[in-house]
Task: inverse folding
C-alpha cells in the first residue's frame, strides 16, 4: 500500500471518528442534564368484590401501608362456606354415580359382545354413562364457582400498597350489582415514577427502557424510562411527559413531591 493511499484512508477514518464523537458528546450532554420532575404513583387500583354480603371486618385505614395478601375487607362467609360444603357432598355423589355408570357400561358392552343383549340396551347404557359424566362435570363447575365466591368474600391487597381511599364500614351491606364506587383504593408502595417534562428536541434521545437516575434530596435511585408521551403536556406545545420508574422499597415518599431526573 503506497503512502498516499494510506494517508487518505487515515484521514477519512479520523474524520469519521470525529463525527461520531461529536454526536456522542452532544447526545451525552443532553441526556446528562438534570430535569425537574414530580413523583407520581406507579399503579392505582380500585378494589371491590363481585359477590354480595354483609361486611364484618375492615382493615383499610387511609394512609396505612399494607402487605401483599393483606385482608382489607371481609364479608360474612357463612353462606359461602355452607354452599361450598353442600356442593362438595354433591360432587362426591356425582362422582360415585359417574363411576357406577362407567362400570355398568363395561358390563353391558361385555354382554353385547356375547350377543346376549340388544343394540337398544347398549345405547341406553351409553346414554346413562354420558349423563353420569355430564352431571359430574357440572358439579365440578358449580363447586368451582362457589369456591371462587368464598375467596372473593375477602378483598386482599394484590401487592404492597398504601390505602388512599376507603368507602366501606363494618355492618354495611354490599350488593355487587349495585355498587357504584370502589370499596378501597390502593396505590403501589414499593415503586413510583418520577414524571419530567422533556422538550421535543431532547425527547428524541430517549426510548422505553432508557436508564435514568432519580434524585430525591441527597438520595439517588436507579430507574428506567417506563413511558414517553406522544402528545404534548396540557398547556404546552413542545414538552412531553416522560415517566421514570424506580424502586423505593420501604422508603416513604408521596405523590407530588419534587425530584430530579438524570438520563444516563
Result:
Amino acid at each position: 500500500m503506497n503512502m498516499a493511499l494510506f494517508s487518505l484512508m487515515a484521514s477519512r477514518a479520523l474524520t469519521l471518528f470525529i463525527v461520531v464523537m461529536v454526536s456522542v458528546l452532544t447526545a451525552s450532554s443532553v441526556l446528562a442534564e438534570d430535569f425537574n420532575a414530580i413523583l407520581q404513583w406507579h399503579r392505582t387500583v380500585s378494589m371491590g368484590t363481585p359477590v354480595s354480603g354483609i361486611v364484618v371486618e375492615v382493615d383499610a385505614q387511609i394512609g396505612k401501608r399494607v402487605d401483599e395478601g393483606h385482608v382489607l375487607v371481609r364479608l360474612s362467609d357463612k353462606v359461602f362456606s355452607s354452599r361450598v360444603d353442600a356442593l362438595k357432598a354433591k360432587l362426591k355423589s356425582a362422582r360415585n354415580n359417574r363411576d357406577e355408570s362407567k362400570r355398568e357400561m363395561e358390563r353391558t358392552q361385555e354382554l353385547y359382545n356375547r350377543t346376549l343383549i340388544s343394540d337398544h340396551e347398549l345405547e341406553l347404557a351409553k346414554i346413562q354413562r354420558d349423563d353420569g359424566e355430564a352431571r359430574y362435570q357440572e358439579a365440578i363447575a358449580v363447586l368451582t364457582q362457589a369456591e371462587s365466591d368464598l375467596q372473593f368474600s375477602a378483598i386482599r391487597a394484590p401487592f404492597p400498597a398504601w390505602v388512599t381511599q376507603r368507602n366501606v364500614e363494618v355492618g354495611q351491606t354490599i350488593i355487587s350489582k349495585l355498587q357504584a364506587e370502589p370499596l378501597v383504593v390502593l396505590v403501589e408502595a414499593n415503586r413510583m415514577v418520577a414524571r419530567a417534562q422533556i422538550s421535543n428536541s431532547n425527547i428524541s434521545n430517549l426510548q422505553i427502557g432508557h436508564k435514568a437516575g432519580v434524585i430525591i434530596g441527597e438520595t439517588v435511585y436507579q430507574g428506567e424510562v417506563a413511558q414517553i408521551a406522544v402528545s404534548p403536556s396540557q398547556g404546552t406545545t413542545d414538552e412531553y411527559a416522560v415517566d421514570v420508574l424506580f424502586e423505593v422499597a420501604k422508603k416513604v415518599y408521596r405523590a407530588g413531591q419534587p425530584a430530579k431526573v438524570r438520563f444516563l
Q: What stands out?
A: The longest strand covers residues 219-228. The mean pLDDT is 88.
